[in-house]
Amino acid sequence: xxxxxxxxxxxxxxxxxxxxxxxxxxxxxxxxxxxxxxxxxxxxxxxxxxxxxxxxxxxxxxxxxxxxxxxxxxxxxxxxxxxxxxxxxxxxxxxxxxxxxxxxxxxxxxxxxxxxxxxxxxxxxxxxxxxxxxxxxxxxxxxxxxxxxxxxxxxxxxxxxxxxxxxxxxxxxxxxxxxxxxxxxxxxxxxxxxxxxxxxxxxxxxxxxxxxxxxxxxxxxxxxxxxxxxxxxxxxxxxxxxxxxxxxxxxxxx
Length: 254
Fold this sequence. Notes:
Radius of gyration: 19 Å
Distance between the termini: 26 Å
Strand order of the largest sheet: 9-10-11
Number of helices: 12
Shape: globular
Strand content: 15-25%
Number of strands: 11
Helix content: 40-55%
Order of helices and strands: HHHHEEHHEEHEEHHEEHEEHEH
């Protein structure tokens, strides 16, 4: 692809994302869930026919992917690169100020999903602690590797580090958090940490929200295992059978 084709490609994608309804659709899919065109029409506050036209354009530009299951049709982000691009645009879209004051809603500010890994205050605290403790080590490629003690930490959580190394994606890398303007942990390791937190019921998420609720068990375990002091504003959610049935998280489509 030559320079002119690159320019055209960038302008087409930028124009597609710039349309407000399409922006709402794309941002709603950043939690990794697949949704129907009807659901996305409601989110974007447009008619069903308008939503279908928007989705066709986004699909044409490889920003979303269509999944057909019987008579049902679902849409998801095409892949994690689209989520990363949207997250970066959110950072650029907020005017920088001498003293940064987050304007993100409290629940999203504290903890949320960033496609398939964790973002928000909680994720940034965990990232900073892993760097401070020497569990995560910088490389020369804007990426991280684990120290011996770091491997022990994650293996103690039941995460197979060797298996993660075989996945065709970056092992561990900094991902700029748009609400905190500081990095949280991305890559295969970040995704594995989120899935572990969900499996162990340390965090829970509503199906229609990117926000993650820290459970009482999660607050205790994360504070103990990572030796961090979590802010009071990170509201804890008690684990009940009703909550467990109501809250869930869908894995991003492959």
